[in-house]
Amino acid sequence: MATLLHRLGLGAVRHRIIVTVAWLLALLAVAFGAVKLSGETVNTFRIPGQESTTALDLMKQRFGDASAGANVQVVFQAPAGQKITDPAVAGQVAQAVATFGKLPGVVVASDPFDKQAPAVSRDLSTALTTVTYGVQPSEVTDEERAAITGALDQARKGSVTVEARGEALSNAADVGGASEGVGVLVALIVLALSYGSLIAAGMNLLTAIIGVGIGVAGITTLSGFVQLQSTTPILAVMLGLAVGIDYALFIVTRFRHELRAGKDVESAAAYAVGTAGSAVVTAGLTVVIALAGLSVVGIPFLTEMGLAASATIVVAVLVAITLVPAILGFIGRKALPRKLRDAAPSGDTVAEGRGFIRGWAAVVTRQRVISLVLAVLALAVIALPFVKMQTTLAQRSPEGSTQAKADAIIDQRFGPGVSAPLLILVDGPDAMTYAATVQKQIAALPGVALAQPPRPDQKQTAALITVIPASGAEDQKTVDLVHAIRDQVADGDGATVYVTGQTAISIDVSQRLNDALPVYLALVVGLAFVLLVLVFRSLLVPVVGVIGFLLTIGAAFGATVAVFQWGWLADVVNAGSTGPIISLAPIIIVGILFGLAMDYQVFLVSRMHEAHAHGAAPRDAIVTGFRQAAPVVVAAATIMFAVFAAFVPQGNDTVKPIAFALAVGIAFDAFVVRMIAVPAALALLGRSAWWLPRWLRWLPELDVEGAALERKAAAEPHPVNV
């Protein structure tokens, strides 16, 4: 692989004008496609074939768009000392409801004073109306959202307290525009400090932005043909920016090393692609496989997210091994600090003195038992909250928002179950006859606050029963109630019973995701082990790498649960709201962190393996490899941490916990696992760390260190540029 990439890098740097123009044309092409062909993303999570999803589709067929469309619940609370039914107060409510019913896109606004189905609290202080649209939440336009927001503001001018909640009220895909800017600024500072050259730092950042632009524009174009989740472009930006900067950093660092060793610009660029580029391709392939592997779970929206994000990684890798060497050909020795551009060649670009990095490696490898125990214990303690993790698909409202205020009023006046209604669809020729029996059976179940009378469709072939649980959407009792209805309420002759509604869909999807997580984790752990065996031709190095990855995952989940579920330091990171973690977060976090952790493992340990292959003693090889690779890994991890962390205070409620888990996971993996645990463990293993059984020596050699290039260089030395 190193030889092939060397040729590719040499071709890119020699034909740098063509390569650069080709990438710029590609960026313009996909940008044009994004503008002309993009479609709407969705915020709903559904799995075809599940009972709740099947029933929702049937319900829409039987009862029309209003039964499954987006909605906004508006709550009216009378002034202190008055009742919502008082004529003056009720008049304000009726006027507001009439206005809501005439808004663009609204199918119906329910009358809270309807005698057949009143929606007034028992103490007569509060009324509730549901404003229903004829489309899914993702199809509600910005103009329609602005109209409902304006109507709410108008209704608040009276004496009645008016608050609202619902998926049609806001766009869940909105992200603060400062997120990317903060990450890019921190990346530029770190790169400038690492390189000692603003030219090299700017070039690194520029190539990463081009890669991200192509990836995200491609995803945006794809949204016109495939229904994608609203979080997919956000994940693509986070991942593409982080790995794009890191992959370019790896190659530029090796390029600078080769320049200082005496190679000319073209040879240094080609050699950097052949060596560091091999590690980049291996690491990138790992991330791609991990993300594409989400398809094995069998959940369509997760498959689409994984494939779209993995495509962004592919672009980042291609940019790193083609565009980066091409740009390096333009800037040449300006990639070095000014004082080193005309310096005499040096065989080693890393200071031989004690230095912090060298001293750190010496201490960790000498005090290996203490270092390993402390690192493992620290991560294990941070991981403890993981055992209490709860998941849900229900979107929580930011504290202080009108949604949060509406939640509080409704829970207090109507009960928490009003926020988590279950819809029971009885479908078939005898639906109306059997629906009354179903309603009585459900009303008798524990945990049911109210089971409303059946509501027939126009053809009398289906009936809809609204069930209000006694518990909220995130309560385990509501989950138990859904299972109890399915287990204890049987189908009748000529009538099939379904449990659906957003609460039931959330429960079903969360359960499917939770069941898939252990399978997916086993898949990526097995993949990590096989990959590392092939890269390092060792059994114990992969074991150390896999255990380190599991510690990283545990600590990342533990910290995320503590902050976003328990509320520890929630204000510090602007968590917005706390409670169960969004269901799709754990499996996405596992996939992304796996790939990124393997990036650092491959880049760090490959330098140790390279030193050992050149005859260094086991401990000396660890110190030498650490001394060469650790500064780059630290810089890369700092950049990646900054990119992910920038999305925490500014992101939406779906992105916040994912970005936080990725940020702290990168920090734990780079600064604790790779900087302490891995070198300590390898030092403890000694020479046996690189042992491979004889019966496995037939495995192919990936040569990520560029041994083939070294043999070629020894036979045909490159010209020296002095």
Automatic annotation (TrEMBL):
Q: How does it sit in the membrane?
A: Multi-pass membrane protein
Alphabetized Pfam families for the sequence: MMPL (PF03176)
Q: Which domain of life is it from?
A: Bacteria
Origin organism is Actinoplanes ianthinogenes
- According to its UniProt record, where is this protein mainly located? membrane
Cleaved signal peptide residues: none
The family note in this entry says: Belongs to the resistance-nodulation-cell division (RND) (TC 2.A.6) family. MmpL subfamily.
- Cell compartment(s), UniProt: Cell membrane
**Mind telling me what this protein is named?**
Membrane protein
